[in-house]
Amino acid sequence: MHKILVTGSGGQLGSDLVVALRRLYGVSNVIESGRRVPLKGSGSSIYETLDVTQRPSLDAIVERHQIDTVYHLAGVLSAKGEQQPDRCWDVNINGLRHVLEAAKTFKLQVFFPSSIAVFGPHTPKLDTPQITIEDPSTMYGITKVTGELLCHYYAQRFGVDVRSLRLPGIISYRALPGGGTTDFAVEIFHAALKAKTYTCFVRPETRLPMMYMPDAIRAILGIMQADPSAITIRTSYNLAAVSFSAAELVAEIQTHLPQFTCHYAPDFRQAIADSWPSVIDDAKARADWGWQHQYDLAAIVEDMLEALKTTGVREACHHEENSDSPVSGMFR
Ligand code: AKB
């Protein structure tokens, strides 16, 4: 039975991953952590306050709970990273180095979420290959390229079992994302149900790789459970599900909510989105450890609207973000 630590567990990915991990390994074997004081810890669930830039606190938690696996989700996302580049570097790079050092010392298995943000203006936009130009134009992207190289280094040099995925934009209903460029693809659902109108911060034709959260969770668990010999890439795997433009997402939502309208007011996030690929080639992940996605755009929209009608729409970004407070003006 594994003893698991999830850093940045209050963020969008962590909120769903913790539920899945607890279902698989038992509530008391999954330790949540984040910078805030405990919000969620109740019953047999365990929460530790952890700033990943502080190595001693991380080591103490690993030792105290006899952790053998870390899902290292704490990080500053792309849009927030442009507002706070120093903090983005500190959290994303020093946090990861501390986790990799702890992995070396305590023989931990590690999951590191990389991103489509490793790519940049000179990367092929269509069918982006696994190995290609990586010239990110954001601090977030720079930290993800560096992070991938650190993972590869620790795997080759010290035998650390670190596994990583280049995640696309993730769509989910349990928690709102905070500080990313793909956040519009989640905000739009809440706005569609609540206000019936949304002002989108990227242009209608902006097409980005996206994935529904259940697929993302299956991908993360899939790569972590794969036989080590199947993992031939120790930087990070390209991972894909669907690609759609903002206008295509609006049109699909309108098939369920015909009165919904969307306006467009591109801001600084447009340039970030424009620097990323539109469609990713993830053949290597499919061949090496059997990755397959399940949700297309129609299935995502149907499930999201159903789920939000049950769980309730959010006014703004309430949850604890991966590492810090969200960018302001998430909803207009
Ligand atoms: C972001 O928009 O910053 C993230 C990502 C694609 O890594 N969702």
TrEMBL record:
InterPro entries: Epimerase_deHydtase (IPR001509), NAD(P)-bd_dom_sf (IPR036291), NAD(P)_epim/dehydratase (IPR051225). GO terms for molecular function: L-threonine 3-dehydrogenase activity. It comes from the Bacteria. It holds the Pfam family Epimerase. Signal peptide: none annotated. Residues 4-226 form the NAD-dependent epimerase/dehydratase domain. GO terms for biological process: L-threonine catabolic process. PANTHER family: L-THREONINE 3-DEHYDROGENASE (PTHR42687), L-THREONINE 3-DEHYDROGENASE, MITOCHONDRIAL (PTHR42687:SF1). Belongs to the NAD(P)-dependent epimerase/dehydratase family. This is NAD-dependent epimerase. It comes from Stenomitos frigidus ULC18. The lineage of its organism: Bacteria, Bacillati, Cyanobacteriota, Cyanophyceae, Leptolyngbyales.
